[in-house]
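explain this.
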Amino acid sequence: MHIDDEPDIREVVRLSLGLDPELSVRSCASGAEALEAIREWPPDLVLLDDVMPHMNGPATLAKLRLNRDTAAIPVVFITASAEIREPRYFKALGAAGVLTKPFDADALVATVRKHLRPKPTALEVMKKQFLKQAEAYASELAGCAKALATGADHADVLVHLRQIANRLFDSEGAFAYRLIGADAMALDEALTEERSDAEIQSAIDTLVTRISSAFGADADSRSEPTIPTMISG
């Protein structure tokens, strides 16, 4: 995604990146427009202008950083300034790189290629989906624990708990989250053996904590200091 308030610059970048048949480009005339468009068109890289009305490049970058879905997108600033301090300034903001104007098409394509992250493998995509589903199950488990504590209908709650435990146990092996599977099995055993509510609560807490730890560790492994590319006018 390229963000620049100058139509001529947007056209130059579009034509330049169009020389690479594997790249697709979407242009936005402002930071606000880009933040809206990115919801339905998440890019692998953002090219962002530095000087724009209403919301400049650094402000747009800050907004991207605050959003969990866009925080790790690589960002490269393209600036017309030739001052020596500029690369250090932009990198201090978290930019992955800086390209100085004027630039030629080959230099732009090379810069974009350099900072593009590799596409996730099918297994990585499935792993991420599993973690998102596991996080949703963690919320359901917490709800079940609360229901047990408040004396809700045990039969329905216990059936739902067993369903969640079995689903987690059945799918964890494919993604190497064996500790989640072990804790899910432990919960299922507590339910099967009709242990006390306190023991079931403890098994639920352990499983929820394990899911949260796995989700956090996976997020940390992906949170490299990469930022949306920015083009400065």
